[in-house]
Amino acid sequence: MSDLPRTPSFDLTGKRALVTGASSGIGLGCAVALAEAGAHVACAARRAEALAASTGAMAAQGWSVEALPLDQTDVAALEVAFAEPFDIVINSAGLARHSPAIETTPKDFDAVMNVNLRGAYFLSACAAKALMSAGRPGSIIHISSQMGHVGGIDRAVYCASKHALEGMVKSMAIEWGKAGVRINTICPTFIRTPLSAVTLDNPERLAWIMEKIKLPRVGEVEDIMGAALFLASDASAMVTGTSMLIDGGWTAG
After folding, report:
1. 93 and which of 20, 107, 150, 226 could share a cystine (Cβ 3.0–4.6 Å)?
2. DSSP calls for 108-151
3. Is 2 domain-assigned?
4. Is residue 247 part of a domain?
5. In 13-162, where do the E strands start and end?
6. What is the pLDDT of residues 32-88, one digit of tens each?
7. Rounded Cα gap, residues 197 and 213, in angstroms
8. Are 241 and 170 contacting, i.e. CB atoms less than 8 angstroms apart?
9. What are residue 187's DSSP bridge partners?
10. Where are the beta strands (DSSP E) in 10-59?
11. CATH for 138
12. 121 is a catalytic site residue
């Protein structure tokens, strides 16, 4: 047969990408995945020193990368960053302040919402506006959480921010679909990073996590990288307004 279907390309050569929270952890993993696939990646984060180290290591691999110090809660700074459109935007910036709900302070509530929801909202809006003004399609990806689909002990504020993020993405997907701008989330379980060490090094917390995860381990950054590449590439051209759960079966039961 001469009309066999062909697998859509995962190649990102010629694409411009922006990854926030890219100085370490999941954000750095996503930046590496896109750069390996051929994209030019602008790595954004607030920690300039850590960002310089990460982008330096990536550049040493021969990848096309630049550092972009950025606080995504600063809407004016976002507008400057999107003076030119990015074909791919991955938002991995996030904040968690865990406590029993009755002990949550307004300061902690506002801090989490400012990054996880408000920052994500205006990052998405700036990214989409730049793409639509240029008449170009694109892919916006948010690193959400399995906690955007379930609840968790001492996580009322964090869960609220991620549940809201999931609803935001669905609405934006409806608005921007006709312009070819896709928006989705990746929802990881507990991933082994420097930020999660406090939780994973606590035997009681680790036991709770391993009871919930159906596969016999916690997640690694590499578990997220394939999903990021899929949602960034033409392989996911028909995917928008949804979430990809990488939770080891946590939310299955």
Report:
1. 20
2. HHHHHHIIIIIIHHHHHHHHHHHHHHHT--EEEEEE--GGGTS-
3. no
4. yes
5. 16-20, 40-45, 65-69, 88-91, 138-143
6. 999 999 999 999 999 999 999 999 999 999 999 999 999 999 999 999 999 999 999
7. 17
8. yes
9. 245
10. 16-20, 40-45
11. 3.40.50.720
12. no
Does residue 1 register a pLDDT over 80? no
Residue recorded with tokens 């990408």: 17
Q: Single out the catalytic residue among 158, 176, 230, 250.
A: 158
Q: Does some domain include residue 69?
A: yes
Is 0.85 topped by the overall pTM? yes
Single-letter amino acid, residue 220: E
Q: How many structural domains is the chain composed of?
A: 1
Residue count (the chain): 253
Q: Give domain status of residue 25, yes or no.
A: yes
User: 26-40: b or e for each residue (b if 16 or more CB lie within 10 Å)?
Assistant: bbbbbbbbbbebebb
Unique residue bearing structure tokens 């935001």? 168
- Please report where in the chains the tokens 């506002």 appear, as a residue: 110
Q: What is the pLDDT of residues 158-180, one digit of tens each?
A: 999 999 999 999 999 999 999 99
Q: Give me the amino acid identity at 69.
A: P
Q: Which domain holds residue 236?
A: 16-252
